[in-house]
Amino acid sequence: MSETSEETTIETADGMSADGLTPAVLASVGSVALALYFYYVRGDKQRGQFVGFWPVTILSLASYFKLEEIKQLLAERDE
């Protein structure tokens, strides 16, 4: 592996902790817990289902922004 690609890999991995628990993952896990709370504990099934869609949205946005960051890093590397 060349030195440039090692640097890019390190720069890309800087936004993620060693165990992979990014803020987006933590927010998704929290929203799953909240959805289960609303659905089973409070008995508000409609709100539980609504909140249950949040993790997908959060993780999709996080993936989009990470891909845009990688795309920008690759564009800078090619210049």
Set down the secondary structure blueprint.
Elements: H1 3-13, H2 23-41, H3 45-52, H4 54-78
Helix pairs in contact: 2-3, 2-4
Give an overview of the whole structure:
This protein is mainly α and 79 residues long. Helix 2 packs antiparallel against helix 4. The longest helix is centred in the C-terminal third of the chain and has 25 residues. The model has no long low-confidence stretch (mean pLDDT 85).
Entry summary:
The protein has 79 residues and is mainly alpha-helical. It contains four helices and no strands.
Key attributes of the depicted protein:
single chain, mainly alpha, 4 helices, 79 residues
* Mean pLDDT value: 85
Fraction of residues in helices?
over 70%
Content of β-strand: under 5%
Strands, total number: 0
Series of H and E elements: HHHH
Low-confidence parts: none
Main sheet properties: none
- Sheet/helix structural class: mainly alpha
Assembly type of the chains comes to single chain
Q: Terminal Cα separation, in Å?
A: 19 Å
